[in-house]
Specification:
Number of strands: 5
Strand content: 15-25%
Helix content: 25-40%
Structural class: alpha+beta
CATH topology: Alpha-Beta Plaits
Radius of gyration: 16 Å
Largest sheet: 5 strands, antiparallel
CATH superfamily: Transposase IS200-like
């Protein structure tokens, strides 16, 4: 019998890339694109986990936004010892454990999508693209109306 084995691809970037004052955009998906982030209570639980890990690993969030079946984060290291990948991995691990105890049908997809924002890229354009995700999805008419978002750097009430 000829069995085909699926070889899992290792994360494509070296862990050292995520250390320091980098700015990295991440997208995490719920397995099978199940809808989960649809109420304030769930958002607040996951936001608390994120804020705790940001503190633990000396990171900040330019933006975090939870859509029904995925989440967007643009994270940065606050100093040369900050570890953005460990921050995100611990967030995923702890929230995954929380999910296994509170909703066994919902799991994170195994990996995530990431993108290092280079200095030549316009950070504000990238952030506005993420913030307008609920508008493009037809959930709200204006990005400020969407409740499941935040930042440790910006006060979005001051943005146009």
């Amino acid at each position: 019998m000829n069995k085909k084995y699926i070889r899992e691809k290792k994360h494509r970037l070296d862990p050292e890339i995520y250390v320091g004052e980098e700015v990295i955009s991440f997208t995490l998906c719920i397995k099978n694109r199940n809808k989960y982030f649809t109420n304030k209570k769930t958002f607040k639980i996951f936001e608390a986990y994120l804020l705790n890990e940001l503190k633990t690993f000396n990171c900040s969030a330019y933006v975090y936004l939870f859509m029904a079946d995925h989440a967007h984060f643009v994270l940065s290291g606050n100093n040369s010892k900050a570890d953005i990948k460990k921050c995100l991995d611990m967030f995923k691990q702890k929230t995954g454990f929380w999910l296994s105890n509170n909703n066994k049908k919902i799991k994170w997809q195994k990996d995530y999508y990431d993108h290092i924002l280079r200095s030549e890229e316009n950070l504000i354009v990238h952030l506005k693209y993420i913030l307008n995700n609920p508008v493009r999805a037809g959930i709200v008419e204006y990005w400020k109306q969407y409740p499941y978002k935040g930042s440790t750097i910006y006060n979005f009430n001051e943005w146009d």
